[in-house]
Structures are given as C-alpha cells and as structure tokens.
C-alpha cells in the first residue's frame, strides 16, 4: 500500500480534483493520516448511529449517517456525488431515484419475508455499494447501514471478516470478490464473508 494521499487503489473510488478540495483537516498530507482522521470520525458516527432508534430505509437517514461518519473530514459528507462518468455507481441525477427504488425493494422483502434477515441486510448493503451515492466512504457507510438494518431485524452486527477493510490485503480482496459475485447474482460469498 502506498502512502500517497489520493492514490487510486483497487476498490477505492477516485476523487475528482473538486472533491479533493473538500478535505477539511489541513494537516493531512499522507494516506495514513487521512485513514486515521476518517477512522476517528467513523467511530464517532458509529456511536451516534447505535444510539438511534430510526428506520434506516430512508434517504435522509442514510445521508445523515454518511455525514456523521465523514463530516469532520470531508465538506461534502452526506451530499450525493455530482461527478459523472465514474467507473462504478449510478449517474448523479439517478442517485435519489435508485435509492428510493432500492429502499422500496428492501421494505417489500421485509414485509413479504422474501429472504432471511441476514440476506435482506446484505442485499441492502450490496445495492448501496452499486448505487455508490457519495464521492467516497460508500463501502464503510453501507456496511454500517447493513449492520443497523440487521439489528432492526433482530440480528447481531456482521463481523465483516473481523478486520479493517481499509488497507489492501487478503480480507479486503475477499470482500471485493464477494461484492463482485453479488454483482453476478451470487449472494452466497457475501453472506459467508459478512459472518466470517
């Protein structure tokens, strides 16, 4: 792993020049400093989220969750990506519509007991990562959102490989491969990884 601040690593969304200007702490010049600042903010966001008793299947809730997780590091936290032609994710104009459709689908799955609770939460996570609504932090936010939904469905939080998924390595590679399998309509690797 390199310590270049904005290097484009496998599985990371590259930030545009405009998005990079949204970095709030002026002391950050290296990747590990950014990772540390984000992790501190994410921990605060997790504490806030776990004290909430809210329905996480609302656009406002997801935007607020992202803002709480990244708002001390990025000025655009909680705002949808404005960039077009990303290598992944919905087109910027389509994000609110895709999120509403996804949340309607998840509500239907819950109401009709279409899938077991873990699978519902992980399909929710997968769809969030596909839509990729924010410039960065989508994987981390969607993992926490899946944990919160699982909790609302009476399940424990997922273990997500029992390690950090920020740095490149075997566990992150397994996670990315599980997401790619889900892209091909095979949710089993993600179900296995999330509880490993």
Task: Note down, in words, how this protein is organized.
54% of the residues lie in helices and 0% in strands. Helix 7 runs antiparallel to helix 8 (188-194). It is mainly alpha-helical and 196 residues long. The chain is globular, with a radius of gyration of 16 Å. It is built from 8 helices and no strands. The protein has helices at residues 17-20, 31-50, 59-70, 95-112, 117-131, 138-152, 170-183, 188-194. The two termini are 24 Å apart. The longest helix has 20 residues, at 31-50. It has one domain (17-194): Fido-like domain (Fic-like fold, Orthogonal Bundle), CATH 1.10.3290.
Gist of the model:
With 196 residues, the chain is mainly α.
Question: How would you summarize the topology of this molecule?
Answer:
Layout: H1 17-20, H2 31-50, H3 59-70, H4 95-112, H5 117-131, H6 138-152, H7 170-183, H8 188-194
Helix pairs in contact: 2-3, 4-5, 5-6, 7-8
The helix count comes to 8
Q: In what range is the share of β-strand residues?
A: under 5%
Within CATH, the superfamily carries the name Fido-like domain
Query: What gap, in angstroms, lies between the N and C termini?
Result: 24 Å
- The CATH architecture would be Orthogonal Bundle
Q: Residue share in helices?
A: 40-55%
Low-pLDDT residue spans: none
The overall average pLDDT, rounded, is 92
Please trace the helix and strand order, writing H or E for each element.
HHHHHHHH
Helix/strand/pairing class, anyone? mainly alpha
Query: In total, how many beta strands?
Result: 0
CATH secondary-structure class = Mainly Alpha
Structural domain tally: 1
Question: How many whole angstroms does the radius of gyration measure?
Answer: 16 Å
Largest sheet: none
What is the CATH third-level topology name?
A: Fic-like fold
Overall shape: globular
């Amino acid at each position: 792993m390199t310590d270049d601040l904005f290097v484009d690593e496998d599985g990371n969304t590259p930030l545009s020049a405009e998005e990079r200007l949204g970095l709030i702490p002026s002391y950050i010049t290296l990747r590990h400093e950014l990772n540390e600042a984000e992790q501190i903010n994410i921990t605060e966001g997790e504490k806030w989220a776990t004290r909430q008793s809210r329905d996480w299947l609302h656009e406002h809730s997801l935007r607020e969750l992202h803002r709480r997780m990244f708002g001390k590091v990025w000025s655009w936290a909680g705002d949808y990506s404005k960039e077009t032609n990303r290598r992944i994710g919905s087109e910027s104009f389509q994000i609110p519509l895709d999120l509403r459709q996804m949340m309607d689908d998840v509500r239907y799955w819950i109401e009709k007991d279409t899938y077991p609770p873990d699978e519902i939460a992980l399909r929710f996570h997968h769809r969030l990562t596909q839509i990729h609504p924010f410039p960065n932090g989508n994987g981390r936010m969607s993992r926490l959102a899946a944990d919160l939904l699982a909790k609302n469905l009476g399940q424990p939080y997922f273990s997500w490989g029992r390690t950090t998924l920020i740095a490149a390595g075997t566990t992150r590679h397994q996670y990315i491969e599980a997401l790619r399998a889900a892209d091909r309509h095979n949710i089993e690797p993600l179900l296995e990884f999330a509880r490993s």
